[in-house]
Every structure is written in structure tokens, then in C-alpha cells.
């Protein structure tokens, strides 16, 4: 059935939230940032074999001010943690984060004093991608999952309230320099 038959009066009603959600859903620009071995898989996702460009994602932005998606690809050392947060803070709103691999999500096999036991102590994470390392196809799938979330995301005060609660939870968590993982 064509649009004219399904909408004989030519009128369609929807919410601003839904229209903007649809527009945002298909326009992520990732920031250029690689941390460890997972970053090699992230780079591979941009090559012709996996072809991230099919989804309009291949242009990794060199400046965080041009980007709205951060892929934390690899373990986060305590030394890198403030730098990751600075990159995140430099990105304009709205912005999203994918935690790529076991190390980024939980410290992985690096259960020691040098590695942050999960990047969600540094930045609010939208999608956790398991694996060591996850394959490029899995990263592309994580982006598609994120897009589904973005399409349904609330705007304005609702979105700010969600971000405020996520930040509050992060502030109340154990400080990263006090984490000892399984050594506690
Ligand atoms: S999850 Fe595996 S591949 Fe990724 S950074 Fe950790 S050790 Fe490297």
C-alpha cells in the first residue's frame, strides 16, 4: 500500500522525540581513540573486508568536538583514565559510549592495581560488547544495537535526568584508585 493510500488526508502525527530519534539513529561519528589489542579489531572494522562504511561509520573523527560516539577499545590503565574522561567531556551532547571487550568492561584478565576494573567508572557506557577481542562484525553489531537505543532515547530534560543519575551512580561507586579486584 502506498503512502497516499495509507494516509488519504495526507496527515501523519508523531512526536518530535521520534523524528529526532530517527535522524540521530543513523548519524554516529566515532572519535579516533584506541587503547590496546581491541583497537586493532576496531581498525579492521573500517577495512574493505568488514566495511563499516556500509553504515556510514568509517570516518573516525580526529577531534572529539566532531564526534558523538566513543569506542573504548581495550584496557583502561589508571594513567589513561583522566585522558579518556577529558576526551569524553570534549565531545558535544548527545554522545554515546561502547565498551569494547572484556578489559574495557571489567578489567578482563588484568585484575591488578594498574588497570581500571571497568570503563563505566570513568564514562557512562551505553553498550557493553563482550569478547577478547570481539571480532569486527561484533563491533558493527554493537553499533547497530546502540542505534536501536538511540532511536528510542528521550530528549531534553528526560535525557539530562538519565545522564544525571548515571553520573551520580558513578560518583557514589568506589573510587578507581581504591579498587583491588579479586586481590581485596
Ligand atoms: S579484551 Fe582481550 S583483546 Fe581486548 S584489550 Fe583486553 S586482552 Fe586485549
TrEMBL record:
Taxonomic source organism: Schaalia dentiphila ATCC 17982
Catalytic activity: a quinone + NADH + 5 H(+)(in) = a quinol + NAD(+) + 4 H(+)(out)
Taxonomic superkingdom: Bacteria
Compartment(s) of residence: Cell membrane
Cross-referenced Gene3D superfamilies: 3.40.50.12280
Record's keyword annotation contains Coiled coil: no
Complex and partners: NDH-1 is composed of 14 different subunits. Subunits NuoB, C, D, E, F, and G constitute the peripheral sector of the complex.
Enzyme Commission number(s) of this protein: 7.1.1.-
Co-factor note (free text): Binds 1 [4Fe-4S] cluster.
Family statement: Belongs to the complex I 20 kDa subunit family.
Membrane topology annotation: Peripheral membrane protein
Record keywords: 4Fe-4S, Cell membrane, Iron, Iron-sulfur, Membrane, Metal-binding, NAD, Oxidoreductase, Quinone, Translocase, Transport
Residues given in the record as [4Fe-4S] cluster binding sites: 37-38, 103, 132
Recorded GO MF terms: 4 iron, 4 sulfur cluster binding; iron ion binding; NADH dehydrogenase (quinone) (non-electrogenic) activity; NADH dehydrogenase (ubiquinone) activity; quinone binding
GO cellular component, one term: respiratory chain complex I
InterPro entries per the UniProt record, alphabetical: NADH_UbQ_OxRdtase-like_20kDa, NADH_UQ_OxRdtase_20Kd_su
Function: NDH-1 shuttles electrons from NADH, via FMN and iron-sulfur (Fe-S) centers, to quinones in the respiratory chain. The immediate electron acceptor for the enzyme in this species is believed to be a menaquinone. Couples the redox reaction to proton translocation (for every two electrons transferred, four hydrogen ions are translocated across the cytoplasmic membrane), and thus conserves the redox energy in a proton gradient.
Official protein name in the record: NADH-quinone oxidoreductase subunit B
Domain NADH:ubiquinone oxidoreductase-like 20kDa subunit stretches: 37-144
GO BP term, pick one: aerobic respiration
